[in-house]
Amino acid sequence: MGSYKLYVPIYLKLSKKETKKKKGKLVKTKTYSLNLNQYKTWHYQTSNKLKKKFKEEIEPQLDELKKLLKNELLQSPLTLNFNYHPGDKRRSDLDNFCTVSCKFLLDALKEHKLIEDDSYKHVVALNFEIGIMNRENPGMEITIQDQCSF
Question: Fewer CB within a 10 Å sphere, N or C end of the chain?
Answer without folding.
Answer: C
